[in-house]
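INFO  loader      accepted 1 record
INFO  loader      residues=162
INFO  predictor   begin
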Amino acid sequence: MPAAPVILNNTPLVALWVLGRLDLVRDLFGEVMIPPAVHAEFLAVDRAARQQALAHASWIKVTPLGNPRRVLAYTGLDEGEAAVLALAEELEGTVVIDERKARRYAKRLGLPLTGTLGVLLLAKEHGLLPSVRAAVDTLLDAGLYLNSDLVTSVLRLAGEEE
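INFO  predictor   done
INFO  writer      dumping tokens
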């Protein structure tokens, strides 16, 4: 478990919400943070249901950037992704993000990172999730995109390959 703050992007947040398992980030990381831009992205769809989920997830804190202009350094990213990276830089935090370009930025900055599938794998390793495959199937059925090669690798690591 990271000792540094953990900052979530919208895609992993949506995935955990779809699974009804926002509790996984609490159980794995304690308190997690989302910048206001991610909060706005998350609430842009199914607002009432998502607002209610966040109201019951007191461990997810909306955390503003100390220097909002820092997001301008991340060209080619959407506002939420840029804000996640900027907040992680400010707080020396761990990033939970799926988008390839944002992950490349995080690696160049030396920020620790994982993604949705990494969280699911970690949850299984800690006995918090019985099956990564079942979670992946639920996400795919809900229309979320997951890279098939990455899914295969994660299922192998989870001991759930076919």
